[in-house]
Design goal:
This protein is α+β, with helices and mostly antiparallel strands. The protein has a domain of about 90 residues: PH-domain like. About 10% of the residues lie in helices and about 25% in strands. A hairpin with a 3-residue loop joins strand 1 and strand 2. The longest helix is centred in the C-terminal third of the chain and has 19 residues. The radius of gyration is 43 Å and the shape is elongated.
Length: about 170
């Protein structure tokens, strides 16, 4: 055996010295699932049966928590056209524009103003926040009579909720 190469005869084997590799991938690997075992007959549990429970007094069901109280009833105002709405109620002022809603609770409102819009049949309502920002909602009345009806209804409702604010 040659000490440098580790092969007999002093030289490394040539390219033809190895057997040809097997063709294909070879036989499939053995199954890895455990072999099925014969089912054991039922055997009693090695653990003792638990002691019966002591009789218990029936427990009264816990009542569900009461829902949050609704705001105190107060006057309400609603003006709406096909796309927009203005609502004033005990919770605050809400504007709806083409399906999008903006709610302003009374605790966040400094004051509320309203006037007739420049087109003549439009009710414009503005909510003013304490930091000076304001948001407007506008509703188109069917006629001048409806607009005057909205003005007559809106004034006392706003007076009720804004009373005592110094506005």
């Amino acid at each position: 055996m040659d000490e440098q190469t580790g092969y007999q005869g002093g030289a490394a084997p040539g390219p033809g010295s190895y057997p040809p590799p097997p063709q294909g991938f070879g036989p499939p690997p053995p199954a890895y699932a455990p072999a099925p075992q014969a089912q054991q007959p039922y055997a009693p549990s090695p653990y003792a049966a638990p002691a019966p429970y002591a009789p218990q007094m029936p427990v009264a069901p816990t009542p569900a928590p009461a829902p949050a109280p609704a705001p105190a009833p107060g006057p309400e105002f609603l003006a709406a056209d096909r796309r927009n709405a203005v609502v004033v109620d005990a919770e605050g002022v809400s504007f709806e524009w083409n399906g999008a809603t903006a709610d302003f609770p009374w605790r966040d409102i400094q004051t509320v103003h309203f006037k007739q819009g420049p087109q003549g049949l439009v009710l414009m309502v503005a909510v003013v926040l304490p930091d000076g920002r304001f948001y407007e909602g506008a509703v188109l009345a069917r006629n001048q009579g409806k607009l005057h009806e909205w003005f007559a209804e809106l004034a006392p409702v706003l007076g009720f909720y804004l009373a005592g604010r110094g506005n």
